[in-house]
Write a structure and sequence with these properties.
The protein is mostly helical. Helix 3 packs parallel to helix 4. The protein has a two-stranded parallel sheet. The protein is built from four helices and two strands, in the order H-E-E-H-H-H.
Length: 86
């Protein structure tokens, strides 16, 4: 998902304890269940509304949250908070 978003592509995922925290209306669709008919409708919806997605916005969001620098910053923050808590 993140790799696709880094390329500016909208994504489709199922609610599975992760993707729903970062996939939003501007960068894709989150499905309640991975049922074939639901997935087909999601693909058709994404395809027919593709012009509503902005590749540069999707890419910038992915870089801001998942690039090497972003992940490093998040790890340093988490470890710093952990050390302060002790």
């Amino acid at each position: 998902l993140v790799e696709a978003m880094m390329s500016g592509l909208p994504v489709i995922a199922t609610r599975s304890g992760g993707p729903e925290s970062y996939i939003q209306e501007f960068n894709g669709l989150v499905l309640e269940q991975p049922e074939l008919e639901i997935m087909l409708q999601a693909f058709l919806s994404l395809y027919s509304g593709y012009e509503n997605y902005q590749p540069e916005v999707i890419r910038n969001y992915a870089l801001e949250h998942f690039s090497e620098a972003a992940v490093s910053r998040q790890l340093v923050e988490a470890y710093t908070n952990l050390v302060k808590a002790e």
